[in-house]
Automatic annotation (TrEMBL):
Chain segments annotated as transmembrane: 20-43, 49-72, 108-129, 226-246, 258-277, 289-307, 313-333, 354-376, 382-403
Name listed for the protein in its UniProt record: MFS transporter
Annotated localization: Cell membrane
Occurrences of domain Major facilitator superfamily (MFS) profile (ranges): 16-407
Superkingdom, natural source: Bacteria
GO cellular component, one term: plasma membrane
Record flagged with keyword Zinc-finger: no
PANTHER family registered for this protein in UniProt: MACROLIDE-EFFLUX PROTEIN, MAJOR FACILITATOR SUPERFAMILY (MFS) PROFILE DOMAIN-CONTAINING PROTEIN
Amino acid sequence: MPSGTAEPSHVLAIPAFRRLFAAQVVALVGTGLLTVALALLAYDLAGDAAGAVLGTALAIKMIAYVTVAPVASALVDRLPTKGVLIAADAVRAGAALMLPFVDQVWQIYVLIFVLQAASATFTPAFQAVIPSIVPSEYQYTRALTLSRLAYDLESLLSPLLAAALLTVVSFHSLFVGTAVGFVISAAMVMRTVLPTHIAPERADTFASRATKGVHAFFANPVLRGLLALNVVVASATALVVVNTVIYVRDLFGGSNSAVAIALGIYGAGSMAVALCIPRVLLAISDRRVMLLGAFVSVVGTASAAVVSITGGVWGWLALGTVWFVLGAGTSMISTPSARILRRESTDLNRKSIYTAQFSLSHAAFLITYPVAGWVGAHASQFTAAVTLAVLATLAALSAAHMWSRPHVAAHFASDEVTNASAETRAAHQPRPRGGT
C-alpha cells in the first residue's frame, strides 16, 4: 500500500479482496450443492453400494489434492494468476455440467478426479495471492477469519439450500447450480485487478518447481511444526467427519436431523474461534494460540473415546460439548496457519509454499480417514478415538518440540513484537461498526 494512504477500516473495503471473497463464497455454495447431488447420484446408480462409491470418490478427491497440486503449481508457475484461476473455474464448471449425464460409476470417478484436480490448481493459487492484496497483518488476519467463516457456513447452509431446491427440481439440477457457482466465481476473478505476476528468475527444472514447496517445508523448522499440527487437525476432523453418523445413529439411536445438528455444533465451535482470532492475535503470538489449539484438539479427541461409552442424556450433552471443543481446537490451528505461511515465504516462492501446505495437509487425511473409518468399523469407536488421540498427541508434542528450539523461539518472539505493533496501530484506527 503506498505511503501516506490510509488503511481501509475493514478488509472488505479492499476491492480486490472483496471480489475474490465473493468468488470464494459462490464457489463454496456450488461445491456444497455438488456434495448433496453426488450422494444422490451415487445412490441412483449403485443403490445400497452408494456408501462405497462415495468413499471411493472421497479417496480420489484426497489423492488429487495430494498429487496434482504440486504438479499443477509447477506447470502454471510462469502463467498469470488470474488466468490460472479462471481456467480452473472453467474446468470445474465443465466437469459439473457433465455429471448429470453419467450412467456408469466409473464415469463419476473420472469426472470427480478432473474437478478436484482443477480445485487443487485453483485453491493454492487463490490462497497465495491474498497476502499480496491484503498487505496489513491485522487485515490479513481478518481475511482469514472471513475465509474460515465462509467454509463453516457453507457446511451448514448448503445442505439446507439443496433441500429447498430439491422440493422444486430434480437432483440433477443441483449439478447445474454447482456449475453456475463456478462460472460466477470466474466472472468475479475476471473483474479483479491482481498484482503483476512475478515469474521465477531462474530457469528451474520442472521437478525442482514441483518439489520446491515441499523442500521448503522440511528445511524450515517453523513449517515443520506446522506440518505436525496439520496431523492434529486431520485426526480431530476425521473423527468428526467420518464417525459422527455412527455416534449419533448407532451409539445413541438418533435421527438424521441429529447428525446434522452434531455437525452444526462442530461448525459452531470453529466459527466462535474464528470470530475471536483477529483480536486474540493482537495480544498472543500465533505459536501460543496454535499450540493451545493442539492441546484442545488432543483433549477433545481423547474425550470422544469416553463419549463413545456414555449413554443417555449425559451422552448427548457430552457429544455436543466435545464436538464444539473439537471445532474450536482445530480452528485455533487452521485459522492462523496462513499467517505462518505468509511470514515464511516471499513473493517468489509464496505460491509453492501455499501449494505444499495444501498438498501435505490433505496427505494427513489419507492416514486419518482410514483410521477413523476402518478402526471404528472393525474394532470399536472407543479404539478409533483412542488411536486418533494418540496420533494427535504425538504430532502436537512434535510441533511443540520443533517450535521450542532457540532460533525458532526467537523467531516467534519477533512475531510477538510485530503483533504488539499491530495492536498499537489498530488502536489508532477507526473500528468498523459491523464487527469482524
